[in-house]
Amino acid sequence: MRIVIFGAGSLGSLLGALLDSAHDVVLVGRDPHVSTTRERGLRVTGVDSFEASPASTTDGTGLDADLAVVTVKSYDTAAAARDLATGDVGAVVSLQNGLGNEETLAAGLECPIVAGTTTHGAMLSEPGVVEWTGRGAVAVGNWRVDGASDHTPQVDATDDPASRVAAAFRAASIDAESDPDIRHRLWAKLAVNAAINPITALARIRNGRVFEGPTAAYAERAAAEVARVARADGVGLDADAVAAEARAVARRTADNRSSMLQDLAAGRRTEIDAISGVVAERADEHGFEAPVNGLLAALVRGWEAGAGVR
Ligand SMILES: NC(=O)c1ccc[n+]([C@@H]2O[C@H](COP(=O)([O-])OP(=O)(O)OC[C@H]3O[C@@H](n4cnc5c(N)ncnc54)[C@H](O)[C@@H]3O)[C@@H](O)[C@H]2O)c1
Ligand SMILES: CC(C)(CO)[C@@H](O)C(=O)[O-]
């Protein structure tokens, strides 16, 4: 397969390096990472150490590919869709965090959209070098334009876009499955991010401390609000179950600084709109409030405005 990785930062570079073992990969990213990768190749460290030599470009327009893997931050998804629409891409899969990426891609592109989520961890440590911080898996599922996941029984399970994406990942030895209920997974991951990310960022604490002490009750409530909005959106998420999952992830990643804490500490824009912001807005559309998510979104957006990053 010819695969474009749109957004060759931390996650995209890791996946690009892995997929390069079985496919013809083109990274779309920015300099100096792209120029360094062209000169010296892409080095992966951490969980496994290896070198890859995918093609790379800073120009995401006019690209032809069987598949585009979108790994930009959620606030760059609309721009990614605009660039991809100028080329010829067979299918697009988003492996981003947050809610709304698939809708944005579907609004801008004619090809099939595949939703996805991953538990791999990656960090671009320097141009041309990506640290694989945690081995995980990929789950993908077909995305319909109306936002519902595709529950239609597949006559030929190998001949739908999500199954083809999962098979392409597995061909590169990446643990990947196609999940007909991908919306449930996206909302469950959203609950984890809504509980952990803004609180760790604002309180400047590592993940392990979120469910300890004064922030615990608010993390629980943030997750429970996501479950309520999910149910209003037709996705059966249980408040206790998602809070338990968020606590488990916080325990498993106790020493990590969440992506939002890292963004805030580095003075970068965060993904708050696609995490807490979208929960508060969708609650509002359904006629109720998600006050903890609303406040957390306002505080992080307030910091972003003050820091001049939005
Ligand atoms: N890093 C992880 O371990 C991880 C794990 C799971 C999910 N995610 C999710 O994946 C997404 C990406 O995360 P990340 O940590 O890799 O972010 P990142 O900022 O490291 O990477 C995104 C890259 O996209 C590039 N980019 C954006 N728009 C571009 C454009 N128009 N042309 C070329 N390059 C462009 C940016 O320069 C950046 O390098 C986020 O939604 C994140 O929440 C990340
Ligand atoms: C799971 C998670 C909260 C762990 O740090 C991660 O998704 C993050 O940092 O965004």
Automatic annotation (TrEMBL):
Assigned EC number: 1.1.1.169
Enzyme class: oxidoreductase
GO biological process: coenzyme A biosynthetic process; pantothenate biosynthetic process
InterPro entries, per the entry: 6-PGluconate_DH-like_C_sf (IPR008927), 6PGD_dom2 (IPR013328), ApbA (IPR003710), Ketopantoate_reductase (IPR050838), KPA_reductase (IPR013752), KPR_N (IPR013332), NAD(P)-bd_dom_sf (IPR036291)
SUPFAM superfamilies: 6-phosphogluconate dehydrogenase C-terminal domain-like, NAD(P)-binding Rossmann-fold domains
Protein's job: Catalyzes the NAD(P)H-dependent reduction of ketopantoate into pantoic acid.
Ketopantoate reductase C-terminal domain ranges (all copies): 181-302
Keyword annotations from UniProtKB, A to Z: Coenzyme A biosynthesis, NADP, Oxidoreductase
Similarity section: Belongs to the ketopantoate reductase family.
GO function term, MF aspect, one: 2-dehydropantoate 2-reductase activity
This protein's pathway: Cofactor biosynthesis; coenzyme A biosynthesis
GO cellular component: cytoplasm
Stated name of the protein: 2-dehydropantoate 2-reductase
Chemical reaction(s) catalysed: (R)-pantoate + NAD(+) = 2-dehydropantoate + NADH + H(+); (R)-pantoate + NADP(+) = 2-dehydropantoate + NADPH + H(+)
Domain Ketopantoate reductase N-terminal: start-end pairs: 3-143
